[in-house]
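Can you give me the bound-state structure? Components:
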Amino acid sequence: MGQRVYINGELVAREEARLSIYDHGFLYGDGVFEGIRVYHRRIFRLQDHITRLYRSARALAINIGMTPEAFHDAVVETARVNEVESGYIRVSVSRGVGLGLDPSHLNSPSTVVISTEQLRLYPQEMYERGLEVITASTRVPPSCCIDPQIKSLGRYINNIQAKMEANRVGAGEALMLNMEGYVAEATGDNLFLVVNRGLITPPSSQGALPGITRATIMECAADLGIPCREAVITLYDCYSADEAFLTGTAAEVIPMVRLDGRDIGSGNPGELTRTLIAAFRERTCTDGPTY
Ligand SMILES: Cc1ncc(COP(=O)(O)O)c(C=O)c1O
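Here's the bound-state model for the whole set.
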């Protein structure tokens, strides 16, 4: 059977999946989303993704129109019918359909789409050798504008601009600063630095998305007895760190070995980074609902 896409309660053939041209997600970026990984027929940290999705929707006063439990089951069912062994699930929810930005004029409930893909963000070689990163001039917006803790569709126009800055100079990723000039995160990943054999990572109050891979790494660090704390991070901290790596559902855990033309530590993936990548890999074998 061909691949299916879940749209508003129905699993339709991928080629027949259609959305209204007046969908608020398309017109205004008025929606929320999640990217989720499947490893060995297990949906990694699905519950955490559902919780974050519902928090994002609540913050934007979007009524998803189904319970988190029903949403959970819809994600599992979509992965099951598509026989996903390992892959990526994209979940998107928009406010609904209607021309004009006033939400009180919407004439439909929220739009819910769940699709499955194969996704590899970087070639294997980059996981082994590490990523070269730049600092983007595009900033993370302050929480009084689009709160970066909300995984909203609209906020990503900034991240796309920053990613294009990286692409222009052949870098694999871009770090984004907040309006105060402190490091928030990368365009699609959280940042960790290794300093004095401990980990530091920017808190969400500095503009970092509360990443689920980030939370997993924090748990791995606790299990391994590696100290880990949230800290306000400057570019100096990055340039002078012993090691650095990025975490995200799409990128997974990837060493960051150069920033703005400076080697980080030895310029190679470090020992603690490698240990944490191995610990993360182990967790992907056991976590999440299976089907
Ligand atoms: C801006 C941004 N930061 C961080 C992350 C990492 O979050 P997670 O590990 O939950 O995928 C993502 C990806 O979802 C992201 O888009």
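A couple of observations. The radius of gyration is 19 Å. The chain is about 30% helix and 25% strand.
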